[in-house]
Design goal:
single chain, 3-stranded parallel beta sheet, 3-stranded antiparallel beta sheet, 12 strands
Length: 443
Amino acid sequence: MVILRFAPSPTGRMHIGNARTAILNWLMKLKTGGRFILRFDDTDVDRSKQEFADAIVEDLKWLGIAPDRIEHQSTRLDRYDLAAETLRSKNLLYACYETQDELERRRKRQLGRGQPPVYDRAALKLTAEDRRDLDAQGRRPHWRFKLGHRMVTWNDLIRGPQHIDTASLSDPVLVREDGSYLYTLPSVVDDVEFGVTHVIRGEDHVVNTAVQTEIFEALSGGAPQFAHHSLLIGGDGKSLSKRLGSLSIASLRDSGLEPMAVVSHAALLGTSDAIVPHRHMVSLVEGFDLGKLSRAPVRFDEAELRSLNARLLHGVPYEHVADELSALGIKGGREFWEAIRGNVTSIKDARQWYDIIHGKLPLDSADSDKTFLQEARALLPPEPWDRSMWNSWTSALQQRTGRKGKELFRPLRLALTGREHGPELAALLPLIGKAEVERRLSS
């Protein structure tokens, strides 16, 4: 069985870039009939907050993602302790006593000599007596994993064949001076114990994959399959910050976007498929293939997302938005939605048209048109009205006044809606009603 994991750090709200990773994993789960694990990488106790973990669960639910299992690394520290001891017993985890200042000075010297700033493994030369002396001085070690200094290769499901020489990398710190764990070791331990078969994540983790592959082999003998997708960039060509508040899933939701618009956009960006709105996850799953994802950076355009959202709403039946309309205080029902859906970019726009239909509006008709509006009022047919009323009314008005085109329709639209553009008046007038139409034409 394919087992996947999405592993956010609960240190802030989930961003569109994070959400894209979750969506790709979820589509892979649905495509293969596998399992999806939500794992909170919360070993950073100072920055990790339960409120952010709860918010991530809420955001995933809104996107239509329901994890099969939820885990917290903060509850599994004993498992990481055991793994660290295993690596020590194999002489693959060694104590280092350099301070950050000492390491920085050493790095600058290497750069000044034209050498790569790679850790020189000086700590491996310490004798047992050296370590006792350092301990006696109150120095507390951090612990590095001893890389094999070899070529690590894998067939990336998005990027194709990959190879990284770990001799070009510093031995990674797995355990801090205070005994807390960095990301690398807990991630491997969890992937092993949870049986993760596929890791889909951003390309910023490609180098990590070489390091983690060696740790996988030291602990379990085999690594999962990896797929590294390209990162989203903004209009300025720079990578989107995951803490850019305006692009958090919460902010997109609060602005009135539909979840399937966000899912469709995130899933199709950077693929060979056209970016079109999908109303249901199943239709996205049918065309899902990691091989379609481009290796090139993907430009995220919020305007494109909002345009996609509008296209989605234009085809959505009333039943799919009834609850959202009700939450906005809209009681117009099916007739209202079908009249205005072609003129909304988000569900919140519906409130504007609801107020236009039912509210008191400032008129925007020119003084020279008052006589025309009075003639229009006099020609209003009796109720009941349906969509055909508009054509019969304006035809009669055209015959009476000789007006046509913009000269005929613009003053009517301004007087009745206060807007230059909007839904067809044929659909709006039965909702406004004759008494209110008469009032607006007389104002």
